Amino acid sequence: MTTAPLARRGRASRHLPLQILLGFLLVYFLIPFWWVIVNSSKDAAGLFGGGSALWFAGEVDYLGNLIDLFSYDGGIYLRWLLNSTLYAVVGGVGATVLAVAAGYGFAKFRFGGRRIGFSVLLGSVMVPTTALVIPTFIMFSELGLTNTIWAVILPTLLNPFGVYLMHIYARDAVPDELLDAARVDGAGELRTFAQVALPMLRPAIVTVLLLSIVSSWNNYFLPLAMLSDNRLYPVTVGIGQWQGIASANNAGGTSLWSIIILGSLVSVIPLVIAFLTLQKYWQGGLAIGSLK
Amino acid sequence: MTVELTAAPTRPPSKTSRRAGTAARQHIMGWAFVGPFAIVFLALLVAPLLYALYLSLFQNQLIGGERFVLFDNYLKAFTDPDFLDGAWFVIRFSVILIPIQMAISLAMALVLDVVTTAFARFSRLMIFLPYAIPAVIGALMWGFLYSKNFGPLAEIFGALGATAPDLLSRELVFFGLLNIVIWQWAGYYMIILFAALQGIDPTLYEAARIDGANQWQITLRIKIPLIMPALVLILVFALIGTLQFFNEPQILRYLAAGAIPSDYTPNMYAYQQAFALANYNYGSAISFALGAVVFVCVYIFLFATRKRGSFLS
């Protein structure tokens, strides 16, 4: 019986027709990336010149387009990338810290109000975050917080689903006996948490961190509503604005399209790298919410 | 603390609460850990929701300023054709999207659970990749592909001797959006289902095979029932996601000249009311109504499926 997983892996697992099907799916899922990679090598003439949309034009000029992208409008694109990084790192890390502490608290302590608190938390997972954007905006504008970095970072700290994931994981993966043993040995609660529980929670922490960072890097509605100064924009709102400009003046905006396409490509590289390098963590971690 | 003491016997005795004098300490430490999140929760979820509710009960008059109108904004919303059109769009969209989305994700997860070649592992990663792409950028990419100016559709259909569908036109933009959302989220849902499938004890399959079950029977009788909680979870995600549809139509709006009005979805309508027309009271009413409707729908759904799903338990 112990050899069952091995036997399963070794047995007929090639299934050629299914692999061909996967091949077709792969084309579908990758075609937008391919289009963007190919077309960010083109200038306006190559884009609109009637050549193949899925193949390179005569001239491949990534470098020229990169220079255009990073110098356009006083190099604002780099600023947007840095803003996105700041919002994603500060907001994402902050949300994760809060979620880890709260999830552990809910899972490992019996305190008054715990049951009600947890029910409210579960309910809040179902509240669509976009429904919060407009009232949060009005609230922040009365506090003078709109059009500051805090208007984007503070709402990002709220991650009820992260708390839920941490709760399940801490409940199942951190045995009470171990915590008790640490306490008997004279460790305080904070030390027990930091030295015994935290290492065991690592897969869940990486998952929650990654999900928080992705959702804040991908955030659009919130910064769109909160920010009016384009130097504070994250890259999503910035590119959205460029695209609006380029679409509005059909002919005059043609030169903007090539930097929009390259800008889209550059903006997805950091997250793609993060996902590919951390895959062994998140693939297991995503199962947390779906299992008993 | 008294609550804690009276409530304690109803739970199986926990090992952590065995030691004398721990109740008070448990209480304090519990709140110490949960407290910081609770503050954020109150400030950024409870307060805005209550504030939206409060604002939605007023109307801003040109003469006379704010006036308390009770539920007038809600009555207005539910008789406002622009809002109702948006709500109707979102309902139709969910009804078509969610079954397709779930079927594709489930099929891919089942295939990837069976095929274990390096190519399959590579495919799994690539199918997931769109999830890492901001919705805005995903919508942009597909907008380019749909575009008559520089997209490949005309080329591909031309080679087959057909005219390309204009997925940015008023008639077909519905399907254009459908495709974008499927592309963006199917991989994420697939990974959740795949992880759940991997969590099943393989000895169950052995036992079923010995009993004479074939691959189909194993899939239908063992795999799918055992990953029901994960299926419920992705259904909830899909519901919450589509009912608050905003990013994709907002971005595609510029590319699809005239096909997507600024009140295409309830969220876009709320945004338009609040930011273009400075009608915060009405915008808040729509936001709050939207949040409340999503909450109630999802809650009813989870309640109806609570035996299967573990989310509420």
Automatic annotation (TrEMBL), chain A:
The record gives the membrane topology as: Multi-pass membrane protein
Q: Which residues form the ABC transmembrane type-1 domain?
A: 81-278
Annotated membrane-spanning segments are: 20-38, 86-106, 118-141, 147-166, 200-222, 256-278
Protein keywords: Cell membrane, Membrane, Sugar transport, Transmembrane, Transmembrane helix, Transport
Q: What is its main location?
A: membrane
Pfam families linked:
BPD_transp_1 (PF00528)
The name on file for this protein is Multiple sugar transport system permease protein
Q: Do the record's keywords include Membrane?
A: yes
One of the record's GO cellular component terms: plasma membrane
Record's InterPro entries? MetI-like (IPR000515), MetI-like_sf (IPR035906)
From TrEMBL, chain B:
Query: Which residues span the membrane?
Result: 28-54, 89-115, 127-145, 172-197, 226-246, 285-304
Going by the UniProt record, its keywords in alphabetical order are:
Cell membrane, Membrane, Sugar transport, Transmembrane, Transmembrane helix, Transport
Q: Which residues form the ABC transmembrane type-1 domain?
A: 91-303
Q: Which GO biological process categories is it annotated with?
A: transmembrane transport
**Pfam families tied to this protein:** BPD_transp_1
Question: Which top-rank group of organisms is this from?
Answer: Bacteria
Q: Which GO terms describe its cellular component?
A: plasma membrane
Q: List the membrane topology term(s).
A: Multi-pass membrane protein
Q: Report the subcellular localization.
A: Cell membrane
Tell me the InterPro entries matching this sequence.
Answer: MetI-like, MetI-like_sf, UgpAE/MalFG_permease
Which family is it part of? Answer: Belongs to the binding-protein-dependent transport system permease family.
Name used for this protein in its record: Multiple sugar transport system permease protein
The record lists the organism as Diaminobutyricimonas aerilata
Lineage start: Bacteria, Bacillati, Actinomycetota, Actinomycetes, Micrococcales
